[in-house]
Amino acid sequence: MLVPRVEGDRMPVATTPGLSSAVAAARRDADGPNRLPEPRRPSALRRLSRELTHFFAVMLWVAGVLALLAGLPELGVAIFAVILLNAVFAFAQQTRADHAAERLRAMLPTRVSVWRDQRRPAAVRGVPPTPWGRQNPTAPGSRPAGVRTSRRGRGS
After folding, report:
1. What is the Cα 121 distance to its own chain's centre?
2. Residue 138 lies in a domain
3. How far apart are CA 68 and CA 138, in angstroms?
4. Rounded-to-10 torsion of CA 58, 60, 61, 64
5. Number of domains, the chain
6. Is 4 helix (H, G, I), strand (E, B) or coil?
């Protein structure tokens, strides 16, 4: 059952009493751990082939073939070289972006706060402190309701 709760000037938050430890253990035994599967990534060959066959690349392939048929082999070869260079650079850029996204995903927290038996376990309560030993004032839920860390844009 959802219980609406209003904290200070914040929007209402729907809360639930949470699962009991017994129900959570039974679900974990029946369904396994609550983990998202790793997304399947297309192979490198498939990603490179997509770079060579998207709409604008196909238009350039057609232009290159038309240049060859028109008796302009230099232009045709130049167009094909542009297609290949563009595909290689786009593939490399996408690979770097994928690696950056993986590094960002690795920075996400792997533990969350949950309610068991209508209370939060102490081991996962709150926001982890910063390296300087203080709570992180910008993290959601790290300060009491109604406490503001900045007065900019508030008219006071």
Report:
1. 27
2. no
3. 61
4. 160
5. 1
6. strand
CA distance 117 to 102: 35
Q: What is the pLDDT of residues 19-61, one digit of tens each?
A: 777 888 888 888 887 777 777 888 999 999 999 999 999 999 9
- Pair 4, 142: CB distance under 8 Å: no
Residue found by looking up tokens 């082999």 in the block: 73
Nearest of 99, 80, 108, 115 to residue 2 by alpha carbon: 115
Residue 119 lies in a domain: no
DSSP letter string, 139-155: STTSS-TT--S--TTTT
DSSP summary character for residue 5: E
Strand (E) or helix (H) holding 15: strand 13-15
**Residues near 154 by beta carbon (within 8 Å), at least 6 away in sequence:** 148
**Helix %, strand %, coil % for the chain, to 5?**
45, 5, 45
The pair of three-digit structure tokens given for residue 103, joined into one six-digit string = 């590094």
Q: Would you state the pLDDT for residue 106?
A: 83
Which range marks the domain in which residue 53 is found? 3-32+43-109
